[in-house]
Write a structure and sequence with these properties.
With about 170 residues, the protein is an alpha+beta fold. The chain has two domains: about 120 residues, no CATH class; about 40 residues, no CATH class. It is about 35% helix and about 25% strand. The protein is built from five helices and nine strands, in the order βαββββαααβαβββ. The protein is rod-shaped and about 95 Å long.
């Protein structure tokens, strides 16, 4: 499976679907009189990349308006549609993918997307470690990495140099 999205095609429920999309996504069973009769997504993985067909609910949003939005807003709308479908299926006693035909892992996608919405896509904590006397001293690293000296006048152990950590 390739990760790059080649196309995100959009249709609306109860609206006419082009012949090109019918062939690309094999929609013969999902149409009635040439019009879409489903809401959701169809995911096709090809050698060139991933093709996604989004079928919007009737009067949810204009197709041109959906396509003019940036990718983050499009996926947010897709997330809303998928969440609504899953909530409806749960109210009907359906538990997940085993109860209806689907070639896309909707539950996994929904959980991953919710995680990324909550925590972000990627986060890296960069910590600058250096020797010095001012700032926040990392005592654990100082005890492990620094030389210890005994002060004979006060009979105490002195660790030098101090190790500092600073998050960037």
């Amino acid at each position: 499976m390739r990760n790059n999205i080649q196309n995100i095609d959009v249709v609306m429920d109860k609206r006419t679907v082009s012949e090109e999309l019918i062939k690309r996504y094999q929609l013969e069973d999902e149409l009635k009189n040439g019009c879409s009769r489903f809401v959701g997504i169809i995911y096709k993985d090809t050698d060139e990349g991933v093709n996604i067909l989004v079928s919007l609910p009737f009067n949810y949003m204009d197709v041109d308006d959906f396509q003019s939005r940036n990718i983050k807003e499009r996926f947010s709308n897709i997330q809303t549609i998928i969440t609504s479908i899953l909530k409806y299926n749960r109210t009907q006693g359906l538990k997940g993918l085993d109860d209806f035909h689907c070639s896309f892992p909707i539950n996994a996608y929904n959980q991953i997307y919710s995680f990324y919405q909550k925590y972000g896509l990627y986060r890296e904590n960069i910590i600058n470690i250096k020797q010095g006397q001012n700032g926040n001293i990392d005592w654990k690293s100082t005890f492990r990495k620094s030389n210890s000296f005994i002060d004979t006048k006060t009979n105490t152990i002195v660790y030098f140099p101090f190790i500092k950590k600073k998050k960037l």
